[in-house]
Automatic annotation (TrEMBL), chain A:
<dbReference type="InterPro" id="IPR058548">
    <property type="entry name" value="MlaB-like_STAS"/>
</dbReference>
<feature type="domain" description="MlaB-like STAS">
    <location>
        <begin position="4"/>
        <end position="76"/>
    </location>
</feature>
<dbReference type="InterPro" id="IPR036513">
    <property type="entry name" value="STAS_dom_sf"/>
</dbReference>
<dbReference type="Pfam" id="PF13466">
    <property type="entry name" value="STAS_2"/>
</dbReference>
<protein>
    <submittedName>
        <fullName>STAS domain-containing protein</fullName>
    </submittedName>
</protein>
UniProtKB/TrEMBL annotation, chain B:
<protein>
    <submittedName>
        <fullName>Hpt domain-containing protein</fullName>
    </submittedName>
</protein>
<dbReference type="InterPro" id="IPR051315">
    <property type="entry name" value="Bact_Chemotaxis_CheA"/>
</dbReference>
<feature type="region of interest" description="Disordered">
    <location>
        <begin position="287"/>
        <end position="314"/>
    </location>
</feature>
<feature type="compositionally biased region" description="Low complexity">
    <location>
        <begin position="127"/>
        <end position="149"/>
    </location>
</feature>
<dbReference type="Pfam" id="PF01627">
    <property type="entry name" value="Hpt"/>
</dbReference>
<feature type="region of interest" description="Disordered">
    <location>
        <begin position="175"/>
        <end position="199"/>
    </location>
</feature>
<feature type="compositionally biased region" description="Low complexity">
    <location>
        <begin position="175"/>
        <end position="191"/>
    </location>
</feature>
<feature type="domain" description="HPt">
    <location>
        <begin position="1"/>
        <end position="103"/>
    </location>
</feature>
<feature type="modified residue" description="Phosphohistidine">
    <location>
        <position position="46"/>
    </location>
</feature>
Length: 86, 314
């Protein structure tokens, strides 16, 4: 299982840096994404995480309070954190 | 949800606002000084001020008030964006970060009298004065000085009051609804006392130059709005994903008492970069694939077992 760690500041620049990592991890089965250090997250990373969840073997995301709160604000809680039914 | 946890959320939002302001000022420094960029900085500081007032951090609130007033002058075009001003704003942001930290950790507020005097000196009403305020750095700041009052005319006090009340209401209601059964709670509260809907879809421009759609969503939530639907149907698989695109669309339910204009004001500065539709019969504006500088394809992915992603493998 591949594992990727999200930085504290998940802005658009971070999304650009993470995207190739996620693509490279495709095909290695389910992905583990460690978001426990996230303090700030924007739309660019949130939508990238949704894509990761829906691609390849899916992804399991560990969330920080900031990430949890952003998911709640944007209505993405179940999309991002519920157990995948793939 | 305990008060400590609610405050923790506030400080998370402070960090996001500080990051947005920093990005905006960095863009200003690099020469991007358009209305969107300045507005992003203004809104970030405004948002911290609102929370500071709601949680009783008076030193933080007083400081952000001065900061915001100066930014309001900049936004109105009353104060020109010059190198000295950007430098002042960057220093003011540093001290704002110190203020937030001292509020969070309960330490002494940072010494800000010199900066406050400098900021007041740079305000529109004082810029024409013979001696710049920086020449008398030890002068005690006048908290209720005339320029602030004048600038506040642009930003009527009732809006701030509404923000504060709505912020607290929103925080507490969210947590009581979400604590036990999030899904059921959301549906129930979405159906109760919500009378109109706002639909939005940020375009790629809403994610550039320090703009961040989530800050607008927070402003909607600050008015009492609640997300009832997020359209994720346009998000492509990873291998055809373009980081620069805005793929998400939202529907928020707004409380009956909120004026439509209050919501429109949030999106005023972003203009066409966020498609908006208001009304229960409306739908989320359609997705448009936009031309971006992003290369459409990543480097070919090796099928080899473990092309260990460089910095983050754990």
């Amino acid at each position: 299982m591949s594992s990727i760690t999200l930085p504290a500041r998940c802005d658009r620049a971070a999304a650009e840096a993470i995207w190739p990592e996620l693509v490279a991890a495709l095909g290695n089965g389910a992905l583990r994404i460690d978001g426990s250090a996230v303090e700030h997250v924007g739309q660019a990373v949130l939508q990238l995480l949704v894509s990761a969840r829906r691609s390849g073997g899916g992804a399991e995301i560990e969330a920080s309070p900031a990430l949890t709160e952003a998911a709640r604000l944007t209505g993405l809680t179940s999309e991002l954190f519920e157990e995948s039914e793939l | 949800m305990s008060p400590e946890e609610i405050q923790q959320i506030f400080f998370v939002e402070c960090e996001e606002s500080l990051a947005a302001a920093e990005a905006g000022l960095a863009a200003c420094q690099a020469g991007t000084q358009d209305a969107d960029t300045v507005n992003a900085v203004f809104r970030a500081v405004h948002s911290i001020k609102g929370g500071a007032g709601a949680f009783g951090y008076s030193a933080l609130q007083a400081y952000t008030h001065t900061f915001e007033t100066l930014l309001s002058d900049v936004r109105e075009g009353l104060v020109a964006i010059e190198n000295d001003l950007v430098d002042l704003l960057l220093r003011a942001l540093d001290t704002l970060a110190d203020h937030v930290q001292s509020a969070r950790e309960g330490g002494d507020a940072p010494a800000d009298a010199v900066l406050i005097a400098e900021m007041e000196g740079a305000m529109a009403a004082n810029a024409g004065a013979a001696a710049p305020a920086a020449a008398e750095p030890e002068a005690a700041p006048e908290p209720e000085s005339a320029p602030e009052t004048a600038a506040d005319d642009d930003e009527p006090a009732p809006i701030d009051d509404l923000d504060l009340a709505a912020l607290l209401d929103d925080l507490t209601s969210d947590f009581s609804a979400g604590s036990s059964e999030p899904a059921a709670g959301e549906e129930a509260s979405a159906g109760q006392g919500k009378s109109w809907k706002v639909h939005l879809r940020p375009r790629s421009g809403a994610m550039r130059n320090g703009s961040e759609p989530l800050l607008m969503l927070r402003d909607i939530a600050g008015l009492g709005g609640e997300c009832v639907y997020c359209d994720v149907s346009q998000i492509p698989p990873l291998d055809s994903f373009d980081v620069a695109q805005g793929y998400l669309g939202w529907t928020f339910a707004m409380p009956e008492g909120v004026e439509e204009d209050a919501v429109r004001d949030i999106f005023d500065f972003i203009g066409d970069d966020c498609a908006l539709a208001i009304g229960n019969d409306e739908e989320i504006p359609e997705f448009q694939l936009e031309k971006t500088a992003q290369p459409p394809k990543p480097e070919p992915v090796a099928t080899a077992p473990a092309p260990a992603p460089a910095p983050a493998a754990a």
